[in-house]
């Protein structure tokens, strides 16, 4: 039986798996502590990982009177495997942080803009899934990265997946 501490995993120092999404990572935070991307860390990348890709979705999204449809809050591709995580407030600052961070590309979320967009909900209790993919190649996109294009591009290249769940 495999040792669980050896498995590919995604964690956040501010979010317990299955725990609450802290307010500063939502649209309900205040001032500088509003809508900032949460810090993420990963461990035990699968052998042969050449890049990482991340999708964050509200699994219980949708219009109040409509069907439940996952809403994309963040898409991030071409994360170098040499990085061990993304710092709090990373979204929109890849170029500013420089180095390996400048290779990362943020995709378009549900509201058709790039970067992190925290939730503002009519009622709470939604499940947020942070899913990190370890890939055997880098992804090549033009200017527009979407969840759908990313999922299509990673087919046949996924070495492993790690999930962090949060509630809001």
UniProtKB/TrEMBL annotation:
Residues 1-38 are annotated as: Disordered. InterPro entries: PEBP (IPR008914), PEBP-like_sf (IPR036610), YbhB_YbcL/LppC-like (IPR005247). Residues 1-19 have a biased composition (Basic and acidic residues). It holds the Pfam family PBP. SUPFAM superfamilies: PEBP-like. It comes from the Eukaryota. This is UPF0098 CPn_0877 CP_0992 CPj0877 0906. It comes from Olea europaea subsp. europaea. The lineage of its organism: Eukaryota, Viridiplantae, Streptophyta, Embryophyta, Tracheophyta.
């Amino acid at each position: 039986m495999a040792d669980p501490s050896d498995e590919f995993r995604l964690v956040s120092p501010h979010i317990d798996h299955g725990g609450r999404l802290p307010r500063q990572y939502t649209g309900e935070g205040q001032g500088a502590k509003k809508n900032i991307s949460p810090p993420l860390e990963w461990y035990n990348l699968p052998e042969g990982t050449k890049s990482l890709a991340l999708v964050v979705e509200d699994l219980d999204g949708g219009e109040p009177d409509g069907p439940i449809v996952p809403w994309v809050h963040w898409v991030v591709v071409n994360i170098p495997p040499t990085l061990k995580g993304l710092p709090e407030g990373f979204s929109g600052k890849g170029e500013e942080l420089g180095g390996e961070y400048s290779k990362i590309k943020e995709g378009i979320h549900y509201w058709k803009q790039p970067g992190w967009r925290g939730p503002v909900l009519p009622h709470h209790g939604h499940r947020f899934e942070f899913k990190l993919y370890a890939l055997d190649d880098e992804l090549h996109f033009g200017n527009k990265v979407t969840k759908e294009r990313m999922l299509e591009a990673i087919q046949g290249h996924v070495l492993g997946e790690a999930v962090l769940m949060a509630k809001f």
